[in-house]
Design goal:
This protein is of the alpha/beta class. It contains 25 helices and 20 strands. The protein has a six-stranded mixed sheet. A five-stranded antiparallel sheet has the order 2-1-5-4-3, sandwiched between helices. The protein has a five-stranded parallel sheet with strand order 12-16-19-11-20.
Length: 640
């Protein structure tokens, strides 16, 4: 057979080197078959095949395809793995007996160390196509049979085994080697595709797992709106099964969905509310890209109420106060608590009256936590803290103008966030007059309209409002709508100021002492200070008590509480000195601060580091205050 001189010379050199190694291995050239010690038991052979099942199956299929072309022409095909074990053999009957006699059959190993120089052993060493004639083999049992062999590689170019085409030398031709090489390439290509399909399937499994673990219903569409993938949550929403894959979304969805802005790359996303079986859903649509081109869209669908509840968890829209948290044993506060307990069992709007700092928000939270809505959102809105021009958006939400924004965003207002729960509006008296009418209409109709959208959105909210002013007087002054006052005050509770429940003051002080310093009212405050604290008017109520105690505990820094640590300057009375008289005069804040710094300098003998640490400020700040108050203490020098 004509083989190129270069190939022939390369083969001769490889064969010669193999003969030399065979001598070193002490291979008997006169043996007639593969040795029994190179044979696998039947179970071992089956296990070996299972360990490389994909390679074995694909190679076997391609061998049969090739054999159909050469059948009855005097040829045999043999497959060996990388260790030289024969895995499969197929051939014409006239050669079958020859190969049986030689033990060139499945289960026997034909490595160089077992059989010396032969087609299979040489391919496994050289990792190149080989043509070897019978008289070139190291063992001389079949000089008239030649072999054309090719290595088989996987997708990573790793050697898997060898494919051998054997026949009588007179029948062998250069095309014999081409045939076996081409078949080996087919096997490698199929292995690569099989590996890619397996990787794709693995990625697909990961994708499916991600889709199914998502909290949202997800649908993937192509450019024609055909459903390519959908998770179980999406199928459940539309009451479908997996047979919907391949259908157009518009065939199963009874809502208007314009995807053209996404497909035309006019927008990066679209947000839209949809109604499916009388349930409101929030849908987010984003493009799918391939090579910077949009090839489809991802639809993420979530139940609107679930989305609001998720937002409640993220933004902590919860009430943390219960009635047991409200401190007070006086008859007047107990009466207010009794009314609040009754109000908790109602869905009627509630108005909380009381001065600043009496704890109106605490009452609102406690009422919510006692109500049937306790597991739903508690949303608070202060009409004092938000500019009047923003209050409408805060209350009703808004939608960004799609003409000027890439993202057509929907922003939930407080009324939507509180749906099925409680909305607490603090200082409703500060609500702009025009907005008062809008919220009245919302309460009456049970629908709201976002700013920028004319579609009604149903809502169900328990409304609790509070005020520190007389709303009837505000109605008379034309600052508040009478119809809104009537609507929000179907139930009403007046929370008493601290000065009207003096017996609760020690309880409140004791609570805050323990909160900020684990201190006791009875043990850490002397009788004179107790009297002073209990008789103080506390114009800012519980809020003022909390701040005064917090400040005193921090200034004391673990030491004994002193009278000057309590900043009790009454805004209605300004006295420069501390007195224990019935007028209850106290130092103002600056005088108290100066006095505290002087006392600290005396205590630490001018050591500024210790003074600053005790006062809870930095040394530069301490020096600035010393300069500001022109503090000088005879006999003490200031050191670092």
């Amino acid at each position: 057979m004509p083989i190129s001189p270069t190939f022939s010379n390369t083969m001769k050199k490889a064969i010669s080197l193999s003969h030399e190694r065979s001598k070193v291995y002490k291979i008997d050239p006169n043996i007639t078959q593969a040795p029994e010690n190179a044979k696998l038991l039947h179970g071992e052979l089956q296990e070996l095949i299972r360990s490389q099942e994909n390679f074995y199956t694909i190679a076997k299929e391609e061998m049969h395809a090739l054999y159909e072309l050469i059948q009855n022409t005097g040829f045999c095909l043999t497959l060996a793995d990388k260790s030289g074990y024969i895995l499969y053999h197929i051939g014409d009957k006239e050669l079958e007996q020859e190969f049986q006699n030689r033990h060139c059959i499945p289960g026997y190993r034909w490595s160089e160390m077992d059989m010396g120089t032969c087609g299979i052993s040489l391919v496994l060493i050289e990792k190149k196509p080989i043509f070897i004639q019978g008289n070139e083999m190291y063992v001389h049992f079949s000089p008239e049979i030649s072999s054309a062999c090719s290595p088989i590689f996987d997708e990573n170019n790793t050697l898997l085994g060898a494919l051998s085409l054997s026949g009588y030398t007179k029948n062998m031709h250069e095309h014999s080697l081409n045939l076996v090489c081409q078949t080996a390439k087919y096997i490698s290509c199929r292995l690569k595709k099989s590996h890619e399909l397996k990787e794709l399937q693995t990625k697909n499994n990961y994708l499916n797992a991600l889709l199914e673990t998502s909290s949202k219903a997800i649908i993937a569409l192509d450019l024609n709106g055909v459903i390519k993938k959908a998770n179980q949550k999406a199928l459940a929403i539309f009451n479908l099964d997996s047979h919907c894959i391949g259908l157009k979304l518009k065939q199963i969805a009874h809502f208007d969905l314009d995807l053209s802005p996404i497909f035309n790359q006019e927008k990066n996303s679209i947000n839209q509310e949809i109604n499916i079986n009388n349930i409101l859903y929030f849908i987010d649509i984003m493009p799918i890209y391939e090579n910077d081109q949009v090839i489809g869209a991802i639809l993420r669908i979530v139940n609107k109420q679930e989305l609001i509840l998720q937002n409640m968890e993220i933004t902590n829209l919860k009430a943390h106060v219960t009635f047991s948290s409200i401190i007070g044993k006086s008859p007047i506060i107990q009466e207010a608590l009794e009314i609040a307990n009754v109000a908790a069992n109602s869905n009627a709007p509630l108005l909380l009256n009381g001065e600043t700092g009496v704890g109106k928000k605490l009452f609102a939270q406690a009422i919510h936590n006692m109500s049937k809505r306790k597991d739903k959102p508690f949303v608070a809105l202060s009409c004092t803290d938000i500019p009047s021009e923003l209050l409408e958006k805060e209350l009703f939400g808004y939608e960004e103008n799609s003409e000027h924004k890439l993202h057509n965003g929907i922003h939930f207002g407080k009324l939507e966030q509180a749906n099925q729960g409680t909305l607490y509006i603090d200082e409703i008296v500060n609500l702009p007059y025009g907005l008062q009418y809008k919220i009245l209409k919302a309460i009456q109709s049970g629908n709201i309209y976002r700013v920028g959208n004319s579609n009604p959105i149903p809502f169900d909210v328990r409304l609790i409002c509070s005020t520190s002013k007389d709303l009837k007087q505000e109605v008379n002054n034309n600052n508040f709508r009478q119809d809104l006052l009537y609507k929000i005050s179907m139930l009403s509770i007046t929370i008493p100021p601290v000065r009207e429940r003096k017996e609760d003051i020690p309880l409140l002080i004791d609570y805050f002492l323990k909160k900020f310093g684990d201190l006791s009212f009875d043990k850490h405050i002397n009788t004179k200070m107790k009297n002073l604290l209990c008789d103080f008017p506390w114009h800012e109520n519980v809020y003022q008590i909390e701040k005064v105690i917090e400040r005193a505990v921090h200034i004391a820094n673990g030491k004994q509480l002193k009278a000057e640590f309590f900043d009790l300057s009454d805004k209605s009375e300004t006295c420069p000195t501390l007195s224990h008289s019935s007028k209850n005069t106290f130092l103002n804040l600056e005088m108290l601060e100066k006095h505290t710094i002087e006392q600290s300098i005396l205590e630490f003998q001018g050591n500024m580091s210790h003074c600053a640490k005790a006062l809870g400020i930095s040394r530069p700040t301490l020096y600035r205050k010393i300069e500001r108050y022109k503090i000088k203490i005879d006999g003490i020098s200031l050191t670092s």
